[in-house]
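Support request, please re-run this one:
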Amino acid sequence: MKRKLAIVDQAFNWPPKGGSSVDTKEIAERLTRHGMDVRVFTPEIMRKGKARTYWSSRLHQLNQEELNFQVEKIRIPLVKYQPGYYSALLKERIESFNPDDLIIGDSYFMKPHLVEALRNYEPILRFYTYEILCFNYNQGLPRRDVPQRCDTYSLDNWRGCHLCFWRDLKWHDRDLFRLEYLTSGAWKPGYRKRFTDALGAAKTIIVNNQLTRQMMAPYARDIRLIPHGVDTSFFVPVSASVTGSSNTVTVSESNSGPTVLIMTGRVNDPAKGGSILIDACRKLHDNDEKIKLLLTGDQCLDDSFIEWVGWLSHDRIPGLLNRADIAVAPAVWQESLGIAVLEAMACELPVVVSDVAGHRVTVRANETGLFFKAGDSSDLAGKLKQLIDSEDRRKRLGTAGRLRAEEYFDWDRIIEKHYLGELFQ
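Re-run finished. Output below.
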């Protein structure tokens, strides 16, 4: 009889709208291939007759045909999306499935309530980012257009983190995220204990980096650093052209052309540090360096060295990466891991990354990439100049990065070592 695994992911969408959905999909898909019966449970918040993702105003998307595991959608009216009602409904669905194991993934302010309702299953908690450890979601303060860094967290500064959340409330574009903060009682004095009790009740807690582990260590019995992975059979270095689902992407620029830099992801999100990278590139450009900067997203600047490629589907990212010479991840916030970095490394690109928590997991300094001081565009420009001036060094770092991605971050290796070899042995 197949071993059953239930995964609760409040933010699951496919095609994905964020890295957490990729994480859930890859885990569920590969464990299904290994013979487990995996089912993902996710809410559909009904608002004005349309299904929304629980943490934003965006429409919920789910293409079951692209998945080899079942996703059970729990449709619930917005007015009833409250801890008691939703937890009871979820518990009923979970009991009907009767799993041998349970992972509670993205669930933010609802997470302690879900642990209470499902504690008989000895749940494994997956913290893809910082969730309740930072009420503003991302361990940083992306207010207005000013990237800032926050080095505290909720369990260490409970009152201060609440004040931070309320101060920045109007800047949040996640209306259901705000609502959940209120309905979950996160603002109440007793919520902190509810959260720490949930950490203590978990059979195992999975995190991406040492910073998250340190935050939770006083309250949890078993914390494991199991990183997000990358599909190294999909993200590969190539030397010709890559044909995507609808477009062909030219891979290499002329040898006599500019050095091509790339940043993928949410360039306009201040926490991701796009403005730091652009400022560094302006410094290089002003010093007559021949560079081109590839950026995903909608054009918001008209610098001559920038090429805006728009928003690309996931299957076209490898082709885009293979147009570049250097990948940059300039996050200001404490990036939990940095999927874009892994994807670039798998494509044999040298990386230049900010010195934040997640990047310290993925990158080895001077072996697979270079670190610069987060938020310091001059330091970034200097590190980029080092690689612009040395093609041999770029190749050496890129080759080592590919090997590291294959050895430590390949999804099949992660599943076999950590999930089948440890959690579900």
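Residues 139-145, 240-254 have pLDDT under 50 and may be disordered. Residues 135 and 165 are 6 Å apart (CA to CA).
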